[in-house]
Amino acid sequence: MATTSHPPLVLAVDGGQSSSLALVATTDGQILGAGPGGPANHYHEPGGPERLRRAMTDSTLAALEAAGQTPEQITHAVLGMTGAMEQAQALVQELLPHASVHSYHDSVTALAGASVARPGVVVIAGTGAVAYGRLTDGREALAGGWGYIMGDEGSGHDIGINALRAITQAADGRGAPTLLSELVPQHFGLTSLKELHAAIYRSAIDRTQIASLCRVVAAAASRGDAVATTLLANAAADLAHLALTVIERLGQIDAGLDVYTTGGVFQSGRFISEPFARAIERRSPASRVHEAAFAPVVGALFLALQAAGTTLTDEVLANIRATLPRRAISKQSEQD
Question: Do domains 9-116+294-333 and 147-291 have the same CATH topology?
Answer without folding.
Answer: yes
